[in-house]
Amino acid sequence: MADDKKDRIIIEPMKITNIVTTRTIRCHFQAPHDPGLYSYVAYVKSDSYVGTDIRKDLRLDVKDFSELPPEEEIDDEISEPEEDSIAGQMKLMREQGFAAAVAGGGGGSQKKQNNDSDSSDSDDD
């Protein structure tokens, strides 16, 4: 893609292969900072077929930020999960695990103590 008026390339040429019938290609570029109407030209060239080259005129209308309409408020709050859903059950398990840790009854430490007492019993044999 190029700006013919300024004789400037906007998007560097790229080689695209493995096109069977059609293919959509996305090209990202930095839009102009200043508001106004900009004209660009997209060139598509084929190295395999004669007479299939395409030249497409493109117009980009850049608006001033202050002219844009205000965006609507989006309700992005996450609701509390239902108790019978998987998310609700996971929340309940997390809360119970946290309550057990605060109370000092961490389940992992009890298992370790039980394993230690079992190993001391086997030393007596």
From TrEMBL:
GO terms for cellular component: Sec62/Sec63 complex
Coiled coil: none
Xref: InterPro entries: C2_domain_sf (IPR035892), Ig_E-set (IPR014756)
GO MF: protein transmembrane transporter activity; RNA binding
Annotated SUPFAM superfamilies: E set domains (SSF81296)
Region (Disordered): 97-125
Superkingdom of the organism of origin: Eukaryota
GO annotation terms (biological process): post-translational protein targeting to endoplasmic reticulum membrane; SRP-dependent cotranslational protein targeting to membrane
PANTHER family: SEC63 DOMAIN-CONTAINING, TRANSLOCATION PROTEIN SEC63 HOMOLOG
The protein's name: Uncharacterized protein
